[in-house]
Structures are given as structure tokens and as C-alpha cells.
């Protein structure tokens, strides 16, 4: 064997390592932006026409832009906290960042908020995906109403298989495909809305205040609840901060991770906001006060209907990938804790390499196989048992938007930069935090109201689209 061959073999046995002793990260701005877009532009983008309809042209537009600016600002603050300011030590997850900069009880509060939200999202994604499958099956048959449980089970099986992807580092291609699909169904929703406007001889909604009191019997109280819900939907649409640190941990160390991450978040939020504004405003222009909660359901009589089917297929593919992106922080936390607790247990630590259908080696870990399978099964069963679980997801989003997206990034930045209390910078940051707290509380109250209304109609295992 030549010296070159020996060197290559040695490199294979001892892959290049980063400064923390782990395999060298290979993530770039493109892969990071794809991960972010995959988690941000979810099927919730299709509800923004309804949200704008409740707020009207001015308040709807201002809300979308304002929350994008707030999220961009706090995401940049969070990116600065990836490495400890004094030691340069990496923080691998959101909880690690909180532990490094704040500590104490705030670590537990962060964990409860983060993992409750992520678990809720997995259930919400399961329900939304099954609904899209059902819409494809029924087409434009308005009388088609059947249980989604079979489709929920199919989605669960697919996620059990994909859950064996070890970590974020192996998800780059899946995220890029998922992000592409999110663009696809957003474009279709926008195009169909424009078509509806044109077919209506250019007529579009002109109300500046949104759905008026009295429309289809709407009372002032109903109007208020819907406005709060709309604000919650918009705030929740930008609530992705809990996975940003995990994504940043995939980036190459040169150039500095925080610089690349800021560029990635800026690109992702810019793209996201353009799509949010387009879907929200054009959808409202097309449907007016009757804007549906899911933009695509408003085109049930559209011909050819296969265009709507393509949009629903895109949603399905996107949420298959988004589910895995959302789950990775949960997987990493549980598996990291178990490895630290039982480092000598081979069931937990040993990796097996299996040649998968001749396409290359697949790394299998017994503990990962068992526990991730159980996790997906639990999420799938809950989605079947609670057909109104999306209300819970809305409540979780309302409750966690303020701490995860605003409070913790601001407090960690203040602690890291040692900003003095009651200074100009400190006062400005606290005012921003207080404003977002009020919005979260209003949205949470509205979600509780919607949840109570859903419970009154509750029927176990009756998830019907």
C-alpha cells in the first residue's frame, strides 16, 4: 500500500474533528436556511389569509412585517449566544444556551416550553397531513366525510422509518426537498387566489378593518376573539427559535458560526415574510370576509382540481420532512441525557452499520430504534384520540412564543453583554419583551376559548376532514 493510500485509510479511521472533539461540521448558509424554511413555512402559511381577514389590510400587513422584524432581531441575538463569550465553548441546544447564560430555574422553564411546543407540533403536523391526504381522496366531492385515522397511521409508519436518521447533520437533503415543497404549495395558493380575483372581473376585498361586525351574525365579542386568534396565528407562524441553536450547531466553524447563522436567518425570514404577505394579502383579496382557515379548501370547486391535488401533495411531502426537523431537538436531548447517565451501556451507546438495499451503510442504534419508535407511536395515537388537538398546538404556540422567541434571547444577550439595568439599551429590550408578552397572553386567552368550544363537540377517534 502506498503512503497516499495509508494516509487515506487513516483519514477514514480518524475523520477530521472540530474543536470540541466531535466530527467536523459541514453545514453552510444554504443548508441552515433550508432547515429554517422547512420549519417555518409550514402548512400554517395557508391560514394567514384568514388571519388578515380578521385584522384588515393595514393591521394585517403591519402585524406580518412587525413580527418578522422582531423574530429577525431576536434570532440574531440568539446566534451571538451559541458560543460562550468567555470560553468560546459551544452550546449544542437551546437549553444549553440558557444554562450557559442564565442557569437556575430558567433552564427547567425553557425545557418545558421548548419540548411541549415541539411535541405539540408533531401531533399538529400529523393531523394536517392526514387532512391533506383526505382532501386528495375526496377531490371536489363536498359530501365526502370519512375518518382520517388510516391516513394518520400511514403517516406514523413513514415517520418511524425516517426517525432513524441520526441527527440534523444527516437531514440536509430532506430539508431542501421539504423547503422546495413549501414553496410549491405557497405558489399554488397564490396563483389560485390571483385566478379567483381575475375571474371575479378584478374585484377584491377593500375593507380596511377586516371582517365587519354583523357579517354572518358575528358579534363584537366574536370579532375580538378572532382578532386575538389572528395575532396568535401570525406570532406562532414565526415561532421557530427553539430549533435555531441545533441548526447553528451543524455549521462549519469557519467563517464564524454566528456570522453564517445571521445570514441564514436573514435569508430565511426574508423569504418567509414575502410568502406570508403574498398568501395572506392575496388570499384575503380573493375571498374577502369569507377567507377559509385553510386557503386550499376554498378551491374545492376549482377546475382542473388536480392543481389543488398537487398543492396538497406538496404539503404532505413538506410535513414529512418538517416533522423530522422539529423532532431532532427532542431526540438529541433524550439521547444525550441517557448517554451521560449510562455511558457504559451498549444498548444505548453502540452503533451498528448495516448496508441498506445496496445504497450505502446505515447506522443503527438499538436505543434510538426503540425509543424514537415509541415516541412516534405516542404522537400518532394522540393525534387519533384528540381530533381537535390543533387547538392545543395553538395554545402551546401562544404560550411559548414570548419565552422562546423573545424573552430568553433578550435575557441571554443582556447577560452575555453585561448590559446595565435601566440603561437605554436595557429599557428598549424590556419594552419589546413586554409588548410580545401581551400579544402572547391575548392569543393564549383566545386559544383557550377555542379549545373550550372544541371540547363541547369532542368525540374520541372521530378525526374527520
Automatic annotation (TrEMBL):
It holds the Pfam family Aa_trans. Residues 25-452 form the Amino acid transporter transmembrane domain. The keyword Transport applies. The keyword Transmembrane applies. It is found in: Membrane. GO terms for biological process: amino acid transport. Gene3D superfamilies: Amino acid/polyamine transporter I (1.20.1740.10). InterPro entries: AA_transpt_TM. Keywords: Amino-acid transport, Membrane, Transmembrane, Transmembrane helix, Transport. The chain crosses the membrane at residues 32-51, 57-79, 115-136, 148-165, 171-194, 267-286, 306-326, 369-386, 392-410, 431-452. One of its GO terms (cellular component) is membrane. PANTHER family: OS05G0424000 PROTEIN-RELATED. This is Amino acid transporter transmembrane domain-containing protein.
Amino acid at each position: 500500500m502506498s503512503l497516499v493510500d495509508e494516509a487515506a485509510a487513516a483519514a477514514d479511521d480518524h475523520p477530521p474533528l472540530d474543536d470540541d472533539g466531535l466530527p467536523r461540521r459541514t453545514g453552510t448558509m444554504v443548508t441552515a436556511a433550508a432547515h429554517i424554511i422547512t420549519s417555518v413555512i409550514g402548512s400554517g402559511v395557508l391560514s394567514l389569509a384568514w388571519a388578515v381577514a380578521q385584522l384588515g389590510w393595514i393591521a394585517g400587513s403591519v402585524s406580518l412585517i412587525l413580527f418578522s422584524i422582531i423574530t429577525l432581531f431576536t434570532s440574531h441575538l440568539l446566534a451571538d449566544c451559541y458560543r460562550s463569550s468567555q470560553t468560546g465553548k459551544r452550546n449544542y441546544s437551546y437549553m444549553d444556551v440558557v444554562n450557559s447564560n442564565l442557569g437556575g430555574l430558567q433552564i427547567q422553564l425553557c425545557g418545558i416550553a421548548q419540548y411541549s411546543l415541539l411535541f405539540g407540533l408533531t401531533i399538529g403536523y400529523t393531523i394536517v397531513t392526514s387532512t391533506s391526504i383526505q382532501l386528495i381522496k375526496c377531490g371536489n366531492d363536498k359530501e365526502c366525510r370519512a375518518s382520517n385515522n388510516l391516513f394518520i397511521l400511514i403517516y406514523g409508519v413513514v415517520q418511524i422509518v425516517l426517525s432513524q436518521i441520526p441527527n440534523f447533520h444527516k437531514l440536509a437533503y430532506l430539508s431542501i426537498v421539504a423547503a422546495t415543497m413549501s414553496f410549491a404549495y405557497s405558489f399554488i395558493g397564490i396563483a389560485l387566489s390571483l385566478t379567483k380575483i381575475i375571474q371575479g372581473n378584478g374585484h377584491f376585498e377593500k375593507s380596511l378593518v377586516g371582517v365587519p361586525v354583523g357579517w354572518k351574525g358575528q358579534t363584537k365579542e366574536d370579532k375580538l376573539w378572532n382578532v386575538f386568534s389572528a395575532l396568535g396565528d401570525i406570532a406562532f407562524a414565526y415561532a421557530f427559535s427553539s430549533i435555531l441553536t441545533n441548526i447553528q450547531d451543524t455549521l462549519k466553524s469557519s467563517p464564524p458560526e454566528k456570522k453564517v447563522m445571521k445570514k441564514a436567518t436573514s435569508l430565511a425570514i426574508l423569504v418567509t415574510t414575502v410568502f406570508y404577505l403574498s398568501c395572506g394579502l392575496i388570499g384575503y383579496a380573493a375571498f374577502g370576509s369569507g377567507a377559509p382557515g385553510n386557503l386550499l379548501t376554498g378551491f374545492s370547486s376549482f377546475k382542473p382540481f388536480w392543481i389543488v391535488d398537487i398543492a396538497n401533495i406538496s404539503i404532505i411531502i413538506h410535513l414529512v420532512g418538517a416533522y423530522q426537523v422539529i423532532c431532532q431537538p427532542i431526540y438529541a436531548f433524550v439521547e444525550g441525557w441517557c448517554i451521560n447517565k449510562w455511558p457504559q451501556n451498549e444498548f444505548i451507546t453502540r452503533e451498528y452499520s448495516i448496508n441498506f438495499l445496496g445504497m450505502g451503510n446505515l447506522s443503527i442504534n438499538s436505543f434510538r430504534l426503540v425509543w424514537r419508535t415509541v415516541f412516534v407511536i405516542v404522537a400518532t395515537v394522540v393525534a387519533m384520540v384528540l381530533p381537535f388537538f390543533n387547538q392545543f398546538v395553538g395554545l402551546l404556540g401562544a404560550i411559548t412564543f414570548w419565552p422562546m422567541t423573545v424573552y430568553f434571547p433578550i435575557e441571554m444577550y443582556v447577560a452575555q453583554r453585561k448590559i446595565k439595568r435601566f440603561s437605554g439599551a436595557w429599557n428598549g429590550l424590556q419594552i419589546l419583551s413586554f409588548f410580545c408578552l401581551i400579544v402572547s397572553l391575548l392569543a393564549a386567552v383566545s386559544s383557550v376559548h377555542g379549545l373550550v368550544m372544541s371540547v363541547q363537540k369532542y368525540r374520541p377517534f372521530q378525526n374527520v376532514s
